[in-house]
Design goal:
The complex is a heterotetramer, with two copies of chain A (81 residues) and two copies of chain B (141 residues).
Chain A lengths: L1 E6 L1 H7 L3 E5 L6 H11 L11 E4 L2 E2 L11 E5 L6
Parallel strand pairs in A: 1-5
Antiparallel strand pairs in A: 1-2, 3-4, 3-5
Chain B lengths: L2 E3 L5 H8 L6 E8 L3 E2 L2 E10 L1 H18 L4 E7 L1 E2 L5 E9 L2 H18 L2 E7 L4 E3 L9
Parallel strand pairs in B: 1-5
Antiparallel strand pairs in B: 2-7, 3-4, 4-6, 4-8, 5-7, 8-9
The chains are: A alpha+beta (81), B alpha+beta (141).
Chain lengths: 81, 141, 141, 81
C-alpha cells in the first residue's frame, strides 16, 4: 500500500520536501512507516527523539495500523502563539 | 469559531463579536511578533501549521475552554506565514458575565495553545541565520 | 496615560499604541455594561466619578502596575455618564515582553481599580427603579 | 472659614445637591466638618458608616486640619469597572 508522509518545520527543511509518498507492505503500522522513513532520510536523525506522529490529523501511537492513502505527519515540538 | 488567517488579525471585530449584553467581562490576549528572543535581535517571523489539524485543535480548544470555565464565548485566531514585527500572530478573546472566569479562561486557552496546536514559529536574526523556536513536544510516541 | 471619557472607548487604538516591537504580549480587559445583576434585568447604566481624584488614582494605578510587574506599559481608560448595554465602561491594556506578567498585571490593575478609584455605577432596572451598585469602602475614616 | 463639601453618588442624591459651602470656625478639622454636615443633613445617616472622606482629592483622616477654601468630598463605597 501507499501512504503520504508530511513533513513540517525543521522536519520539512531537513527532509528537503513538504511531503512524499511511501510504499509499505500490507498490514504495516505507524512504527513500520517510521522505520522506513528513518532509513531513507538520515537527515532527520537529530530531530527523531522530539517528533510526534499524526495519522489523518490525529496523534497516533506506534502500534496504530495504517490504511491505503493514509496521511502520516511528522510533527516537531510546537511553538505557536 | 477558530480561524487560521494569512493577513492582519482583526482584533476589534473579535471584541465586537464577543461584546454581548449578557457579558460584563471580555478578556483578550494578543501575541505580537517580537523583535528579540533570548538576547538575539529578530528581524522577521514566520509561522507554519499543519493546517487541518491545527484548525481542528483550535476549535477543540475553544470548546474545551467553554466547558471548563463559566464563560459565554471563546474565540481563537492564529496568523500564518510572515508576521511583521509588532503585528498580532495570535488573538484569544473570551467573554463572560464575570471577570475572574474570563481572565482564567483566556490564560488557560493561551497556555494550552502553545503546547497542543501544531503550529511552528521561525525567527530570522539580524546577525543572519534563522531558527525554529524551541517548542513543546506534542506527545511521546 | 489614564483617561476618563464620555464616549466610546477606542480599544483598537489602545491596543495599537501598546503593540510595540519589543512587546510580545498584550493583555486586555474590557468591562462591558451588562444587562443583568443579581437576578435583575438592567436596562441602563450610568457612571459618576470624583473626576480629578479618579484621574489621579488611575494614573497612580498605571504607574504602580508598571513598577510591580515586568511590563512595558499599562493604560487604563474609564467611561463616565450613560454607557449603553454591551459597550465598554472600562479598558485595561498591558503590554510586556512575555505573557505571564502581562496577564498578571492586567488582572491586578483591574482588581485594584474596583476597590481604589472613586467611580460609582448606577443600575436602572427593567422592573423600574435604580440602585447604586454595592461597592467597596475606600478607607476607614 | 469656608470650605466646599462635595457629595457623590448616593450621598449626592440623599443630600439633594452635588456640593454646598460650609462655614466652620477657624482651626476646624475633618471631624468637625463631618459633625456639622451630619447635623445639617440627616438624610445621609444610613450612608454614614460607609463613607470615606477626601480633602482636596486625597483621602483624609478625621484629625486632619482644614484650610480656607478646602474641598471636602464624601465618597460612598466605590463600584467602578
Amino acid at each position: 500500500m501507499q501512504i503520504k508522509v508530511l513533513y513540517f518545520a525543521q522536519a520539512r527543511e531537513r527532509a528537503g520536501r513538504p511531503s512524499a509518498p511511501l510504499e509499505l507492505p500490507e498490514g504495516s503500522r505507524v512504527a513500520d512507516a517510521l522505520t522506513a522513513i528513518r532509513r531513507s532520510t538520515p537527515a532527520l536523525d537529530p530531530l527523531w527523539p522530539h517528533l510526534a506522529v499524526a495519522v489523518d490529523g490525529a496523534l497516533a501511537p506506534a502500534d496504530q495500523a495504517l490504511r491505503e492513502g493514509a496521511e502520516l505527519a511528522l510533527l516537531p515540538p510546537v511553538s505557536g502563539g | 469559531m477558530a480561524e487560521l488567517v494569512r493577513a492582519s488579525i482583526d482584533v476589534a471585530r473579535l471584541i465586537g463579536d464577543a461584546s454581548r449584553p449578557e457579558c460584563g467581562a471580555v478578556s483578550v490576549f494578543i501575541g505580537n511578533s517580537r523583535d528579540h528572543n533570548e538576547g538575539r535581535k529578530v528581524v522577521r517571523l514566520e509561522y507554519e501549521a499543519y493546517e487541518p489539524m491545527a484548525l481542528a485543535a483550535l476549535g477543540k480548544l475553544e470548546r474545551e475552554t467553554r466547558s471548563r470555565f463559566e464563560i459565554a464565548s471563546c474565540r481563537i485566531v492564529h496568523r500564518l506565514g510572515e508576521v511583521p514585527l509588532a503585528e498580532a500572530s495570535v488573538a484569544v478573546v473570551v467573554a463572560a458575565a464575570h471577570r475572574q472566569p474570563a481572565f482564567d479562561a483566556c490564560q488557560w486557552a493561551m497556555n494550552e495553545l502553545k503546547r497542543t496546536v501544531p503550529i511552528w514559529k521561525k525567527e530570522f536574526f539580524a546577525e543572519g541565520g534563522a531558527e525554529w523556536v524551541k517548542g513543546t513536544s506534542l506527545a511521546p510516541r
